[in-house]
Amino acid sequence: MAGPHHRKSTPTGATRRTALGLIIGAPLLSACSGIQQSFSTPDAGPSGPPQQPQAVGTGQVKVGLILPLSASGNAGVAAQSMRNAAEMALAEFQNPNIQLLIKDDGGSPQGASQGTQQALAEGAEIILGPLFAGSVPATAQLARARGTSVIAFSTDSSVAGHGVYLLSFLPESDINRIVDYSIGIGKRSFAAMVPDNAYGNVVEAAFKQAVGRKNGRVVAFEKYGADRAAPARTVAQALGQADALLLADDGDSVVATADALTAAGSNLHNIQLLGTGLWDNPRVFASPALQGGLYAAPDPSGFRSFAGRYRTKFGGEPVRTATLAYDAVALVAALARTQGGQRFAPETLTNPSGFAGIDGLFRFRSDGTNERGLAVMKVTSGGGTAVAGSPKSFGA
């Protein structure tokens, strides 16, 4: 997760304007390792005791929030931070007509089903969560039967669709942004090394599609498991034909892959290195081989401001994914204020102009996935430096 960000918190007035400023037109709304943490399965280990349901706020529009509050390990910590962020959004959005019905799913599909049933029985008009990919279908089945939309936090695109929208950091957005930027600065031939796992499979599909869409070419593409040496040699032999090299993995793994390529004879300073939001990691910034690499990620200024306000309110650091819960609550509060009876209808949620949140622009696609307006960051020893800002609006 991201380390502490030292920045003065935004004054209350500005904070409220930011929340209200989610509405930037009719009916528009106005990184770090772990930003794409999948949360596909709960951590091993004993869970805590189930937390009692809680209602926060006094508004007329009821919103279910399903989180694994009693799950073990990092998942439970993330859920607690996300609940705090959700309550913070309510506090900063002046007098929202929202009541949050917070349910603990314990990190299990059964818990998600029970929590969703309770929220719907209590009148929830939309469900926020769950966090785990394995729990989303349990919630979706019940919500679809009632014609209720779901905004879940999983990064597994396979659980999206049919009224289930993902407000998460999807690797597809990172790949599209970094490939488009690379083509824009004259890169035409690409090589790539990605892990042989679910994340790597998603990256592979998005990367090949993005390069093809821009009439570029992929000269080498290799996947690796525990042993990187053989695929590194294959890629190293092809780098003379490439303008850019994508290394898509988390911080520790990217450093290990760069080391394997160097050992295979590659001079990584002679090619433009490319990465995803997972590069926003101290290990990457400290690696001599990765200096000058470019990666796509949300503009970090939004999270720094959010983290400062969170520290002031709760006395600790938010997890990086806490902004998802904040943005989800701010979104439904804004829609409840402006969109009347159609506030959570599919055509409202999939407005092509999108919405603006803590981490910049985002919009939901009709298939339930999302697109984000991302910045392009450059690796330096002092951290990530923006070389291209996030867009102010989405193209057609």
Automatic annotation (TrEMBL):
Region forming the signal peptide: none
InterPro entries in UniProt: BCAA_transport, Leu-bd, Peripla_BP_I
Region (Disordered): 37-57
Gene3D superfamilies (UniProt xref): 3.40.50.2300
Residue ranges annotated for the Leucine-binding protein domain, each copy included: 60-383
Highest taxon listed in the record's lineage: Bacteria
This protein's UniProt keywords: Amino-acid transport, Signal, Transport
UniProt family annotation: Belongs to the leucine-binding protein family.
Protein known as: Penicillin-binding protein activator
Organism: Bradyrhizobium jicamae
